[in-house]
TrEMBL record:
This is N-(5'-phosphoribosyl)anthranilate isomerase. Belongs to the TrpF family. It comes from Mesorhizobium shangrilense. Residues 5-208 form the N-(5'phosphoribosyl) anthranilate isomerase (PRAI) domain. It holds the Pfam family PRAI. Its EC number is 5.3.1.24. Coiled coil: none annotated. Pathway: Amino-acid biosynthesis; L-tryptophan biosynthesis; L-tryptophan from chorismate: step 3/5.
C-alpha cells in the first residue's frame, strides 16, 4: 500500500507547489492563532485550490468552536478535519455529523500506555495522527519539531489507521519508516528554514529521503 505523506502548515503558493511536486497525498492548514503557521480560512481556501484532485486538504484545529469550524469549512472547503486538541469522542461524532467530512484525531504519545487513549475513538475517528507531547513551555499542541520513541507504535493493533508525526525530517525518516512501518507520515518543522517558513528545498529533500527509504523497503 502506498505511503501517505502530509505536509502540514502550508502558507504560500511556493510551498504548496513543492509539496504537490513531491507527491504529497495530504496538505495541512493550521487554524490555531498562536501558531507561526496560522493561516486565515479564506487564504487557505485560495491556496487549497492547487491541491484539488491531487492531495487531500486538511484543516487542523484545536478545540475549535462550531462557529470557527463553520467558517473554515465554508471558506477553505477541506477534504478532512484534523482535531489536534483535547476533543472527546462525542465532539468528534458531532463534528463528523455536522460537516460529513472524515476526521483525523491527533493524540500525543510518550509511552506505550498512551496508546490506550485510542480505544474510545475507535469506530469514530477515521484516522489517528500520533504526535510527540509538546515540550514544557510550548504554547503549541503540535508543530514543535520533537519526536517520540517510534518503537511504541509496534504495540498498536494492526487495524488502526494512522499517520506518524512529530520531529520528522530527511535525516530520520528512514529510521522512522523502518521501525514503525506507518501507513502515513506527517511533517511540518522538518521542512522549514524558520518557524512557519516552509523551504521548498527541504521539502524536496524530504521526499527524496522518503523515496530512498521506501525503495529500500520494497527491495
Ligand atoms: O504546526 C502547528 O503549528 C500546530 C499548531 C497547533 C496544532 C497543531 C499543529 N500542527 C499539527 C501537525 O499536524 C504537525 O504537522 C505535527 O504536529 C508535526 O509537527 P512537526 O513536529 O513540526 O513536524
Amino acid at each position: 500500500m502506498a505511503l501517505d505523506i502530509k505536509i502540514c502548515g502550508l502558507k504560500t503558493d511556493t510551498a504548496m507547489a513543492a509539496a504537490l511536486a513531491g507527491g504529497a497525498s495530504h496538505v495541512g492548514f493550521i487554524f490555531f492563532a498562536k501558531s507561526p503557521r496560522f493561516i486565515e480560512p479564506s487564504e487557505a481556501g485560495r491556496l487549497r485550490e492547487a491541491a484539488t484532485g491531487k492531495a487531500s486538504a486538511v484543516a487542523v484545529t484545536v478545540d475549535a468552536s462550531d462557529a470557527f469550524l463553520d467558517e473554515i469549512v465554508q471558506k477553505m472547503r477541506p477534504d478532512m478535519m484534523q482535531l489536534h486538541g483535547s476533543e472527546s469522542p462525542a465532539r468528534l461524532t458531532a463534528v463528523k455529523a455536522r460537516y460529513g467530512l472524515p476526521v483525523m484525531k491527533a493524540l500525543s504519545v510518550s509511552q506505550t500506555a498512551d496508546l490506550e487513549r485510542v480505544k474510545p475513538f475507535i469506530g469514530i475517528a477515521d484516522r489517528f495522527l500520533f504526535d510527540a507531547k509538546p515540550p514544557k513551555g510550548s504554547e503549541l499542541p503540535g508543530g514543535n519539531g520533537v519526536s517520540f520513541d517510534w518503537d511504541i507504535l509496534t504495540g498498536l493493533d494492526a487495524g488502526v489507521d494512522y499517520m506518524l508525526s512529530g520531529g520528522l525530517n530527511a535525516a530520520n525518516i528512514g529510521d522512522a519508516l523502518r521501525l514503525a512501518n506507518p501507513p502515513g507520515i506527517d511533517i511540518s518543522s522538518g521542512v522549514e528554514s524558520a518557524p512557519g517558513v516552509k523551504d521548498p528545498v527541504l521539502i524536496e529533500q524530504f521526499f527524496r529521503a522518503v523515496r530512498a527509504a521506501t525503495d529500500n523497503r520494497a527491495a
